[in-house]
Structure formats: structure tokens, C-alpha cells
Write a structure and sequence with these properties.
- The protein is of the alpha+beta class.
- It has a single domain, classed as Alpha-Beta Plaits, CATH 3.30.70.
- It has two helices and four strands.
- The protein has a two-stranded antiparallel sheet with strand order 1-4. It has a two-stranded antiparallel ribbon with strand order 2-3.
- The longest helix has 13 residues.
- The chain starts with a strand and ends with a strand.
- The site of iron/sulfur cluster (SF4) has 13 residues, from helix 1.
Length: 64
């Protein structure tokens, strides 16, 4: 299992994370990222990690 930490203040709402892993990330009504799963199952971990790397403003960090 992995966990995603979000720095909402950095998020510019590009949505690249949501495109890369829609099971894990969404955007709220203000266009700020939300993490849909508190704990990411191993089956989605690689996808979630790729999505965090896709963020152009480094708003996402992955932890274990
Ligand atoms: S890719 Fe980064 S800036 Fe874009 S919505 Fe996701 S967290 Fe926000």
C-alpha cells in the first residue's frame, strides 16, 4: 500500500494526475486535486507513482 501526500497550494489544476490515474486522483469543483483513495492498493501503486511524476508543479508526493 502507498499513500499520496498533496500540497493543495501548489496544485494548478492541470489534471495530468487525473488523466494518468483516474482511479486515484480527481479534481474538485475549484479545480484542485483530490485523492480518491486514502491508501492506494499495490495493484495501483505503479500507476499512482507515474501520475505523481506527471505533475508539472510537484504537488504530489508518494509515501509508504
Ligand atoms: S497534475 Fe499536479 S497540478 Fe495538475 S491537477 Fe494533478 S496535482 Fe494538480
Amino acid at each position: 500500500m502507498v499513500h499520496i501526500d498533496v500540497d493543495e497550494g501548489r496544485c494548478d489544476g492541470f489534471g495530468f494526475c487525473e488523466q494518468a490515474a483516474p482511479e486515484v486522483f480527481g479534481l474538485d469543483d475549484d479545480g484542485v486535486v483530490t485523492v480518491l483513495l486514502d491508501d492506494i492498493p499495490d495493484a495501483l501503486a505503479e500507476k499512482a507513482e507515474a501520475a505523481t511524476r506527471a505533475c508539472p508543479v510537484a504537488a504530489l508526493r508518494i509515501g509508504r
